[in-house]
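Class, discuss our next protein.
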Amino acid sequence: MVQHTTLQALRREVESKREDIIGFLREICAIPSMDSQIRACGERIAVEMKALGYDEIFWDKMGNVVGRIGNGSRILLYDSHIDTVGIGDPDEWEWDPFTGKIEDGILYARGACDEKGSTPGMVYGLALARQMGLLEGFTAYYFGNMEEWNDGQAPHAFVQTEGIKPDFVVIGEPTMMQIYRGHKGRVEFKIVAKGKSAHAASNYLGDNAIYKLLPVIERISHIEPDLGDHDFLGQGRITVTDMAVKTPSINAVPDEATIYVDRRITFGEDPESELRRLRDIIGHRDDIQAEILVYDEPSYTGFVFPLDKIYPAWAYEEDEPIVQAGCAAAEVLYGPVDTGKWDFSTNGIYWAGKAGIPSIGFAPGNEIHAHTVLDQVPLDDVVRSTEWYALFPTILRQTLDGAQIDKQ
């Protein structure tokens, strides 16, 4: 295990960089990175990685910023998405959402929780790990990416286009400084009803597409008790989230209506069976169709990577080596911690769900503050997380070597 003197030295090093870490976080929060426009924010992160002596800094084809440090045989990647949702109605904010404010040791700013709050700890932590000999055996990557519009796309594209596939991943979505080991998956659908337009004054000559969807919406709203459940991941969920209508005018019968459905899936549920469930609700008719959505929007670099909007559920047991290592690193630093799961979805849907790469989550912040005007992160935890990100590689190496020895 790690020597007490090493832990003391690590804590001193992190504390000596406290103001740099906090200042770095405030600066990247002050740079808007909505709608996947992450270039300016990524450039600021690249400057910090260069100053900290990263071996290589580059941009992948999609436009995500990547820093490489170390030269070991195992590949460890720290994933932090640096795009954010928008600010919504500016009048609902009591302070500038980008400049933010610090009150009672908490930074309030857009992206502070979700999830720029993990970036400083990751960037500084990996540099400290190499400096203190804690990165032995690993080549490590910081991956600052875009996730909000289509989670899992950035890591999928990174592995496929750059040819770099990590052996282990840490996801920087907020975990309240606990070790998270999974979450439900998701499938997104659209249901389109076709009708016939007519003047509203002669509506009996038309066929209202909106009305056709009303019984479908009603049935969807009542099917949740029949969905799957899992002891750890929890109950499957289904929600009609949006509706779009095509009509010649607001004085005409609409001839097309579309609803969008967010289906949170747990283990034992699969996209095709959920599509069949929706088609069973619709019944055998030609005027209403259901399908799985496809995401094919270009990134800000013009890069297109089409994917069905299918996001697998994933979870690891507490005895999985990466989970054990995450908990051990936290316990050495802070005392015993719990394991848990996210309610929302993360890039883990690709890393663990599709690629089968052992992954965990660790970061400051509480996901209940994500996407709200109270977006926030405790600054003490931002600084303390740096210790964990620095220590984790050597604890993971010890755990893996121990597991290998036990198997012999």
Observations:
- Confidence is low (pLDDT under 50) at residues 404-408.
- The longest strand covers residues 185-194.
